[in-house]
Amino acid sequence: MNKKCLFLFVGASILLTSCGVDSEADIANDVEAQQFNQERLGPQPPSIRGQNRERMAQDERHTAYAHAAGFYLAETATLLEDMTVLFEQNQVNQENLSATQDKLDEIRQKSEQFINLDRPATFDGFHHVHLATLVELDALRRILDDMQEPIHPLQVTNARVYYENAVMSHKLMEREFMSVTEELGIY
Questions:
Q1: Chain center to CA of 46
Q2: Which residues does UniProt assign to the signal peptide (predicted)?
Q3: What phi-psi label fits residue 185: left (phi over 0), alpha (psi between -120 and 50 degrees) or beta?
């Protein structure tokens, strides 16, 4: 009988204490409210950009070259996107072909101006990827120069391969640019 009473007493106490417990939603709301009401005791942790900016002294040459490179990347990306018209159509005509060749000439002109800039050593990797992009664009230009009416679909397919390689190289160039500028704390 003693065991029965003890078991009944323990069961009743557990039942009564559990009735006063908050629900899961109330507990979650209390935790969220507590987090928002607490004041931060120390300074905010610096971002990676802030840490890099403090760690690396800002050199004006790096900043100037980074701004010029960013502008160059934006311009050439726009010109590359404008070339997609040639490769999206099933029928390539001389007008589309000459418009694409003009855009390639414009990229070549901009790249010659950009290459002549004073390049800091930290941007050497970016420069090498830039040269690889120019090689792909030159190969695309040679393929387009060899096209004559009537243009065979295999010629367009061949040109598309070089175009896609140039776009991928350009994306790699953008990635290298972002990596270097983040490391320097510029962007």
A1: 22
A2: 1-23
A3: left
Tell whether 13 is covered by a domain: no
pLDDT at 5 over 70: no
155 within a domain of the structure (yes/no): yes
Which domain range does residue 171 map to? 48-184
Residue 100 predicted with pLDDT over 60: yes
Question: Locate tokens 């942790």: which residue?
Answer: 45
33-81 per-position pLDDT tens digit? 666 665 555 556 656 655 555 555 557 888 889 999 999 999 999 999 9
98: pLDDT strictly greater than 70: yes
Q: Are 70 and 78 in contact (CB under 8 A)?
A: no
Taking residue 162's Cβ as centre, other Cβ atoms within 10 Å add up to: 19
Contacts of residue 142, Cβ cutoff 8 Å, sequence gap at least 6: none
How far apart are the C-alpha atoms of 185 and 187, rounded to whole Å? 6
Whether residue 165 lies inside any domain: the answer is yes
- Mean pLDDT confidence for 143-161: 85
CA angle, residues 19, 24, 30, in degrees to nearest 5: 105
Put simply, whether the predicted model's pTM sits higher than 0.85 gets the answer no
| Contact yes or no for 56/98 (Cβ under 8 A) | no
The label of the residue with tokens 């007008």 reads 95
Q: Give the chain's radius of gyration (CA, Å).
A: 32
